[in-house]
């Protein structure tokens, strides 16, 4: 195993993906930022030098951070941010996982421009569980705002102006026709596409004209090979897929288009956003284009999301735990909260929107990170009373305000609350989408662990009917899952890593709405299974930290 070292200079740079030049914070001057390549078992060391004007943290999305919770980079959860003109070095081992992940800033909307690929190859001498590809190609999908005021002053981010593939908007937009991502391929060769949805707020469909792809991993976990002509990725998800240049020599578009998941309103896809596959020897002619799914094509998204299975017996596979120690039922809601003074609120009656889990709107701490408060036993930063159930039962997917207690569900409690979990226990979470939040898919992401997606369906979860249908044999094992519109997922994970870990919606627009909670995984019996002391140079909070503004 090696030590892989990077220096991240975070600075404000000028870029021009569309028509206007924009000043954005970027790592080493590029959008997307640098690709990190490691092998499983390596130690990754990243020196972050903050020359930007923003407070930042960097999160290694999907990395287990075994015994290195202090390196998770979750702003005000595991650390206070790195302030301008300050540095911090992230250092952690990458073990027990292979495939494609991403790194991104974890402070307000900064991940819009501070992100990049994190590629984990097998240890040297270990093969992939699929034929060795000729080449590997990172494909990073992004959202772009052509604003001169600066995206970062707006929260939540407004509708975006464009989508990008590897920083390039391509031929769907004015000003960017000649700035399109191009992949040159040799006929007959197979490529491993390492696909990441780094968009802040949009699920995206992906297709390549006239070609199939074979999915071999999701969120850096190998899957049973799955052949498809279309895929969908929620923000924060990644897919490894093989693609063989097995079609006639010419040009082909690879395209992305938004998946809005809204029920009922049939909307054709926007102009798809294109990159180009160029077969060696192809003369420039007009490229073949794929037909993209409609924006609300729930059926296509559901098929892709639910049909892929885990690679039982593959590298790092562990059987699904049969016994559950902690059962949780978590409802997602979107209610209202009185508008604080001197703030403009966009909700009805001058209120602001308040997303919630089990009718709690999560408040990011302002003075001290939760993990420092936990480690040093400092009270007043959070409470450990996150409820394992919603305050009451109701018809989740057909929620209507009829009674006083329905009305209360519209005004969630604002709190920084965590759920404490014993070391090594198996946690099962049913996440239920509700009518309180509109029929939209929400990508729930867990820090520090992968979860098995043992159940996935539409309607109200029924503990008797649906519990008997759980897939305990070959479910997906991953870190981010879209909870279907008007549906639910059932997740299991083993809490074998001490520390404070976020569980939240990976639509950035929903973070200020508090669709979030935290798990505190207690120490195990030995020093080796306990949360170590924080690194001595962990950034300190000032009296005026950047906080999530809502
Ligand atoms: Cu990729 Cu908490 O995030």
Automatic annotation (TrEMBL):
<dbReference type="InterPro" id="IPR034288">
    <property type="entry name" value="CuRO_1_LCC"/>
</dbReference>
<dbReference type="InterPro" id="IPR008972">
    <property type="entry name" value="Cupredoxin"/>
</dbReference>
<dbReference type="GO" id="GO:0005507">
    <property type="term" value="F:copper ion binding"/>
</dbReference>
<dbReference type="InterPro" id="IPR034289">
    <property type="entry name" value="CuRO_3_LCC"/>
</dbReference>
<dbReference type="InterPro" id="IPR017761">
    <property type="entry name" value="Laccase"/>
</dbReference>
<keyword id="KW-0560">Oxidoreductase</keyword>
<dbReference type="GO" id="GO:0046274">
    <property type="term" value="P:lignin catabolic process"/>
</dbReference>
<dbReference type="InterPro" id="IPR011707">
    <property type="entry name" value="Cu-oxidase-like_N"/>
</dbReference>
<keyword id="KW-0732">Signal</keyword>
<dbReference type="Pfam" id="PF07731">
    <property type="entry name" value="Cu-oxidase_2"/>
</dbReference>
<keyword id="KW-0964">Secreted</keyword>
<keyword id="KW-0677">Repeat</keyword>
<feature type="domain" description="Plastocyanin-like">
    <location>
        <begin position="137"/>
        <end position="281"/>
    </location>
</feature>
<protein>
    <recommendedName>
        <fullName>Laccase</fullName>
        <ecNumber>1.10.3.2</ecNumber>
    </recommendedName>
</protein>
<keyword id="KW-0479">Metal-binding</keyword>
<dbReference type="GO" id="GO:0052716">
    <property type="term" value="F:hydroquinone:oxygen oxidoreductase activity"/>
</dbReference>
<feature type="domain" description="Plastocyanin-like">
    <location>
        <begin position="385"/>
        <end position="523"/>
    </location>
</feature>
<comment type="function">
    <text>Lignin degradation and detoxification of lignin-derived products.</text>
</comment>
<dbReference type="InterPro" id="IPR045087">
    <property type="entry name" value="Cu-oxidase_fam"/>
</dbReference>
<keyword id="KW-0186">Copper</keyword>
<dbReference type="Pfam" id="PF07732">
    <property type="entry name" value="Cu-oxidase_3"/>
</dbReference>
<keyword id="KW-0325">Glycoprotein</keyword>
<dbReference type="GO" id="GO:0048046">
    <property type="term" value="C:apoplast"/>
</dbReference>
<keyword id="KW-0052">Apoplast</keyword>
<dbReference type="InterPro" id="IPR001117">
    <property type="entry name" value="Cu-oxidase_2nd"/>
</dbReference>
<comment type="similarity">
    <text>Belongs to the multicopper oxidase family.</text>
</comment>
<dbReference type="InterPro" id="IPR034285">
    <property type="entry name" value="CuRO_2_LCC"/>
</dbReference>
<keyword id="KW-0439">Lignin degradation</keyword>
<dbReference type="InterPro" id="IPR011706">
    <property type="entry name" value="Cu-oxidase_C"/>
</dbReference>
<dbReference type="Pfam" id="PF00394">
    <property type="entry name" value="Cu-oxidase"/>
</dbReference>
<feature type="domain" description="Plastocyanin-like">
    <location>
        <begin position="11"/>
        <end position="124"/>
    </location>
</feature>
């Amino acid at each position: 195993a090696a030590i892989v070292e990077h220096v991240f200079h975070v600075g404000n740079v000028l870029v021009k993906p569309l028509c206007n030049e924009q000043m954005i914070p970027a790592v080493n001057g590029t959008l997307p930022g640098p690709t990190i390549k490691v092998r499983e078992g390596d130690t990754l060391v990243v020196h972050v030098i903050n020359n930007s004007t923003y407070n930042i943290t960097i999160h290694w999305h999907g990395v287990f951070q075994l015994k290195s919770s202090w390196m998770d980079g979750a702003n005000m959860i595991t650390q206070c941010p790195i302030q301008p003109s300050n540095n911090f070095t992230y250092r952690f081992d990458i073990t027990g996982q292979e495939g494609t992940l991403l790194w991104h800033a974890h402070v307000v909307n900064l991940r819009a421009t501070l992100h990049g690929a994190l590629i984990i190859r097998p240890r040297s001498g270990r093969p992939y569980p699929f034929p060795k590809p000729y080449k590997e190609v990172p494909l990073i999908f992004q959202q772009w705002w052509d604003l001169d005021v600066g995206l970062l002053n707006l929260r939540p981010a407004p509708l975006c102006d464009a989508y990008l593939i590897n920083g390039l908007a391509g031929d769907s937009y004015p000003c960017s026709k000649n700035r399109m991502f191009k992949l040159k391929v040799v006929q007959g060769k197979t490529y491993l596409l390492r696909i990441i949805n780094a968009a802040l707020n949009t699920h995206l469909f992906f297709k390549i004209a006239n070609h199939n792809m074979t999915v071999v991993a999701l969120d850096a976990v190998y899957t049973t090979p799955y052949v498809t002509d279309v895929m969908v990725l929620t923000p924060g998800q990644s897919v490894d897929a093989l693609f063989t240049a097995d079609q006639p020599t010419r040009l082909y578009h690879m395209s992305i288009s938004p998946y809005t998941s809204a029920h009922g309103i049939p909307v054709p896809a926007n102009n798809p956003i294109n990159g180009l596959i160029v077969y060696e020897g192809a003369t420039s002619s007009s490229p073949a284009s794929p037909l993209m799914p409609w924006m609300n094509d729930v059926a296509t998204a559901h098929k892709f999301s639910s049909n892929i299975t885990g690679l039982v017996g593959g590298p790092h596979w562990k059987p699904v735990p049969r016994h559950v120690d902690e059962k949780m039922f978590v409802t997602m809601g979107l209610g209202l909260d009185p508008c604080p003074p001197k703030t403009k609120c966009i909700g009805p009656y001058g209120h602001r929107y308040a997303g919630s889990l089990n009718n709690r709107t999560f408040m990011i701490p302002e003075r001290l990170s939760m993990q420092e408060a936990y480690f040093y036993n400092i009270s007043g930063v959070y409470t450990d009373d996150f409820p394992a159930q919603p305050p009451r039962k109701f018809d989740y997917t057909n929620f209507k305000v009829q009674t006083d207690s329905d009305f209360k569900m519209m005004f969630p409690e604002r709190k920084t609350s965590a759920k404490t979990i014993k070391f090594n226990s198996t946690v099962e979470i049913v996440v239920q989408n509700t009518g309180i939040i509109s029929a939209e898919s929400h990508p729930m992401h867990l820090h520090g662990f992968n979860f098995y997606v043992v159940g996935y369906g539409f309607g109200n979860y029924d503990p008797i009917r649906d519990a008997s249908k759980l897939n305990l044999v070959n479910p997906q094992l991953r870190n981010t899952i879209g909870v279907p519109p008007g549906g639910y997922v059932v997740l299991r994970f083993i809490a074998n890593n001490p520390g404070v870990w976020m569980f939240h919606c990976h639509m950035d627009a929903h973070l200020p709405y508090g669709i979030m909670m935290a798990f505190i995984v207690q120490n195990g019996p030995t020093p080796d299974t306990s949360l170590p002391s924080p690194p001595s140079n962990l950034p300190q909070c000032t009296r005026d930290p950047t906080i999530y503004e809502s």
